[in-house]
Write a sequence for this structure.
């Protein structure tokens, strides 16, 4: 019978332990849990999109069934300062109207402006050329913050869509920008006042203060 010294046995055991496969760390999800994001303090308004308001943060809950569908985005001036536009612009005036679509791109949602000036049936070979020469510009991109409880909708934060000088939804025309020498939007004096969801649309009202 062969016996080994105790110290040799310990070294052998240690060597065997060193060969164990290290445990893989669980990859952290890039998304928050619904209840962590949409707390009991949230004001929720269900409609075309479900809207969540938490303090001064605003969220859209966009159903996946609404992605890649034509929608109409209309911008109007609800109220104007005296003399704006030389008397030719009134409260309620429409400043922009466009077709938009929402897309999911990996972990984000993109809002794109759609043009139908040039179209071709998908069955025609020229349709590829028409698509390449009418690429849909991105109005805004949003990180997906979370999914709703049954994972049928993505939740995005939309503050920056309405609190940056995004010309796609701005109340100022290019003519007024030149006339008043507008440089930028003053975020410290711009606010979202109201966000409400209805069966067929979402309405947002916000004050926009520009710097000249």
């Amino acid at each position: 019978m062969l016996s080994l010294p105790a110290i040799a046995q310990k070294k052998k055991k240690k060597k065997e332990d060193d060969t164990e496969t290290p445990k893989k760390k669980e990859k952290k999800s890039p998304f928050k849990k619904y209840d962590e994001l949409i707390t009991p303090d949230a004001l929720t308004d269900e409609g075309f999109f479900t809207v969540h308001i938490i303090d001064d943060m605003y969220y859209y809950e966009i159903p996946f069934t609404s992605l890649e569908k034509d929608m109409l985005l209309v911008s109007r001036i609800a109220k104007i300062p005296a003399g704006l536009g030389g008397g030719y612009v009134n409260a309620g005036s429409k400043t922009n109207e466009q077709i938009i679509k929402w897309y999911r791109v990996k972990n984000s949602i993109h809002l794109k402006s759609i043009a139908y000036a040039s179209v071709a049936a998908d069955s025609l070979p020229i349709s590829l050329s028409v698509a390449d020469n009418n690429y849909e510009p991105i109005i805004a991109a949003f990180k997906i913050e979370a999914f709703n409880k049954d994972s049928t909708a993505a939740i995005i934060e939309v503050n920056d869509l309405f609190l940056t000088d995004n010309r796609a939804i701005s109340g100022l025309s290019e003519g007024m920008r030149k006339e008043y020498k507008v440089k930028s939007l003053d975020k410290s004096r711009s606010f979202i006042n109201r966000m409400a969801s209805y069966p067929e649309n979402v309405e947002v009202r916000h004050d926009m203060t520009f710097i000249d």
Remarks:
- The mean pLDDT is 85.
- The chain has one domain: 29-205.
